[in-house]
Amino acid sequence: MHMADALISPAVGGAMWAATAGLAAYAAKKVQNDLDDRKIPLMGVLGAFVFAAQMINFTIPGTGSSGHLGGGLLLAILLGPQAAFLTIASILTIQALFFADGGILALGCNIFNMGFLACFIGYPLIYKPLTGKNPSQGRLFIGSVLAAIIGLQLGAFGVVLETVFSGVSELPFSTFVLLMQPIHLAIGLVEGLVTAAIVMFIMKESPEILQKTALGHSLGTISIKGVLVTLLIAAMLTGGALSWLASSNPDGLEWSIAGVTGEAELKAPEGIHSFFAELQGKTAFLPDYNLKHPEKSIVAGAKAAEEKEAWPAVDSGTSFAGILGSLLTLALAYSIGKGLRRFAKG
Amino acid sequence: MLKIEANWIDLRYLDALSNQNTFIHRLNPCVKLIAALSFIIAVTSFSKYEITGLLPFFLFPAVLLSLGNLPAAPIFKRLLLVAPFVLFIGIFNPLFDHTPITKISSIVITGGWVSFFSITIRLCLTITTALILVATTGIDAIGSALLRIGVPKIIVVQLLFMYRYLHVLVEEFVRSTTAYSLRSFHGDGVQFRAWGSLLGQLLIRSIDRANRVYQSMLCRGFDGEVRLMRTSTLTTSDIGYLTFWMVFFVLIRFFDVPELLGKLLMGVF
After folding, report:
1. Most CB contacts within 10 A, which of A23, A313, B110, B204?
2. Nearest to B130 among A78, A96, A206 (CB)
3. Among A170, A249, A299, A342, which would you mutate to test the B interface (most chain B Cβ atoms within 10 Å of its Cβ)?
C-alpha cells in the first residue's frame, strides 16, 4: 500500500506533493484557527497511538492470517478530519524516514491515498451521514466498516493511477486494478472491523470522547468547498510549475508523459486509457511532447511494431563498454566510500 | 520478539546514530534535506531503461555512510524488509515487455528485464538515502529544517510531539501485548473478541495521558504557542557540501559516466 520512490516519476510525485501540501496548509490553518489548544497534545498522542497500534497483529477469525489497523478513519472519528489529516501525514512521514516504508518523493502520494481519502472522503461523506448525531451500535458498526472499505478502495485505486501514470512499472492498468482492488477489499474489511470494534468499545466505556467530535465540538465542520478549491489551486500551480520544469529539463519529464500517452495510444482504445489519451491530446501544453520526435519514439514506441527501427542496433561492443564502465563506477564509489571512512574516524 | 518491539529497537537505533558528531552530522539540516531531495528527484527522473546512468549515484550513499560513520548492516536489513513489495510490482515488467534491447554474447536482453533491474537500483538508492538522512540528521533537526523551508508550524509541532510520545506509548503497548500473549494461546496475534477492548483500553489510557500532558504544559506556562529552537547558521562547509553534490548530480544526470569510462578503457587496451 505504501508507494516507493522506485516506482514513481518526478512528475507524478511532484504533482501529488503539491496537492498534499495544499491540503496540509488548508488543514493546518483550520486547526490553528480552532481555539482549543488542547488539540496539540491530543493529536501528538493519538498519532503515536495509531503508529503503535499499526504494529499489532490482529488474528482474522477463520483464516489464521492476521491484519493491521491503518488508522485514518479512527483518527478522523476521534479528532475530526483536518486534525486527523495532519496526524496521518506525520505518521507517514515518520514511517518514510525511519522505516523506509514509502518513499520521500512518494510521500505526497501516500498521504493523499491514506490521509485525504480516509479523512476528507470516507469520514465526512460516508461515516458521518450513516452514523448521525446519536448513533446506535449497529449504525456505528456499518458506518465504520463501509467508510473503511470505500476509503481503502479509493486509496488502492489511487496507487494504481499514480503507478500507471509514472510509467516505471509495465503493469497494464486493467491488470493492476484487478490485482489491487480485491486485496484491498479484504484489507478494508479488517480495517473497518477493527475501527468498529474500537469505536464501539469507546462508545460503551467513555462516550464523551466520541460525542465531542460528533457534534463538531472540538473542530469546526469540514467545508468540502474549501477542500475542492485548495485542490484545484494546487493542481493549477503544479501544472504551471511542471510545464515550466518540463521545458527546461526535457528528457525525464517528457519521457514520463510520453510513456503514458504512448501506452494509451498503442493499446486498443479501452476504458480509461483512451479517455486520458484523448484528454492529453486536447490539453497538451507543450508542442514539444510530439511523439514522432525520433528520440522520444524510442520509449513511446516500446510496444509498437516498428520498435526494431527505433531501437539502436544491437552492438555488443557498446554494451561491453557499458558493463565494464559500470563495474568500474561501482568499484570507484565503493572505494571512495571506504577511503573516506578513515577520514571520518580520524 | 514482538514485531512492535523489534520496530521500536530499530527506531531507537536510528535515533542513537543521529546523535553522533561527524562532519555530516554537523552540517545544516536544511542542506542535507535539499541534497537528499535533489538526489531522489535526479534518480527517479531517468528513463525506465536506464541502468548505467544510475550507477554513479551510488557514490552519494557510499560517501554519506562513510563520512557519517554509519554501519551499513541495519540499513541493508531495512532495505531487504521493504524490497519485496516493490520487486513484486517490478517483476511484472519482464512479463509484459519483451522488446529486445541488447545482447550479451548470445543472450538477448529484453526491455522488461532491463527496466526491472533499473527499478531494483532505484529502490536501493532511494531507500538508503531516506534512512541515511534521518540517521545523520535526527528528527529534531529535520523538524527545524522543515520549518525553515516553510512547512506550517502546527505540522512540525505535531510531528515532533508524535515522535516524542511514540516512545512513551510503545513501551505501554509492548507491556499490554506481552501481557495479552502470555495469557492467550494464539501467538502474538490478537483474537477477534479482544480487538475492541485491547485497543480501546489503550486508547482511553492514551487520551488520559494526552490530558495530563496538556495540564502539565499549562502548569509550565503553555499559551497555545510551541516554541522551537532553531539552529540556522550556514557555514562554508554547508555551502561547499551542497554545491559539490548539486554539481555532481547535474553532471552524472546528463553524462553517462560508466559508458564513457568503459569506452576510455576499451580505447586504452
Report:
1. A23
2. A96
3. A170
